[in-house]
Design brief:
3 helices, 67 residues
Length: 67
């Protein structure tokens, strides 16, 4: 598994995951939309930690700086 996410991409995903968690736990968003946001936030957090996004591979995208 080759890294395909840059630093800015990881930071944005972590911030979005935090925002989605905040919306979920403060009950600003409820129901199915809240569950979807929480799961999406978890995916964003996981992909940020491992620096790999499977969708980027499918579309041939890489935000990681080349050396």
């Amino acid at each position: 598994m080759k890294n395909n996410m840059g630093t800015a991409d990881k930071v944005i995903r972590i911030l979005l995951a935090a925002l989605f968690s905040y919306l979920y736990f403060t009950k600003t968003v409820e129901g199915t939309a809240a569950t979807v946001l929480l799961v999406l936030g978890g995916v964003f957090l996981l992909t940020s930690v491992i620096s790999f996004c499977p969708l980027y591979t499918l579309f041939g995208i890489s935000t990681c700086k080349t050396k």
